[in-house]
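Take a look at the protein record below and tell me what you see:
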Amino acid sequence: MKTLRALAAVAAAIVFTQHADAQDWPNRPLTMVAPFATGGSTDAIARIVAEGLSAQLHQPVIVENIGGAGGMTGANRVAKAAPDGYTLGLGGTGTLAIDPTLYPNAGYDPRKDFAPVGLIATSPLIILVNPSVPAHNVQELIALAKAQPGKLNYASAGAGSGIHLGTVLFAEAAGIEITHVAYKGSGPALTDLLGGHVQMYFSSLPPAIGLVKEGKLRALGVTGLKRSASFPDVPTVAEQGLPGFEAVLHYGIVAPAGTPRPIVDKLNVALRAALGDPKVHGHIATEGAEPLPTSPEEYAADIDREETKWSALVKKSGAQAK
């Protein structure tokens, strides 16, 4: 009985300490780890949300860019940080759904090593083709690919990237055979698409807007379940003969596993409030993403579903980290 009472006292003390810590939290600046270099969509989303959280929490939220290994280095930094609410991570499809299968020794488990705070947004891709390609919609593209198996080349931002695997998912759903050409990033891929060296590319939305408006590339479809505000006249893939097709990238905030639940709840409230701010909402939309606030439990379920979906595509594609 004495042992049981002692254990109960320890448990009560831990709970009391956590609540006390949460009441005082945050009393100093926070760090938001963006697991890629500056300049990309992930970095942009991290900075937009960090500014919104700073306003809600009344403490600076400093973005720390830690690139390397497809985002895995930054994800490990978060997973191994002290679970005190002062280190957060910008979680994404790459780090939480793809990397754990793509890399044989990722060093973290997306379900066990993080405390999900909430989703930020989802972002579709857009199918771009060089104007020389005789296809003006998804159905014509599929027909062209079926008539010439393996002759259409598609670019990606790297083997195992969300762009690569989104195209794999499309080819599987459409029942077509197309040839993968991997590049080291979106910039070189778009350059060769413009030059006609490859015929198609599943692009993130921001870099596509100007190129499509100027007529340098043709947009055939977006990969979300509804049309994008950035391209309201471009039908979804699902509207064009592939019902239910969806290949979207997810962004969310995670903390290290073991972060006290009261702190996670405070973060979730702050995140929801930030996403409800018209200024933050507008900046996220500019990045081609749609804000999607959730509870921590809903984000945990999302991480589970996304890892199941994308890990299967990694295996099917045969992609390997180099």
Summary: Confidence is low (pLDDT under 50) at residues 6-13. The CA atoms of residues 4 and 10 lie 10 Å apart. DSSP finds eleven helices and eleven strands in the chain.
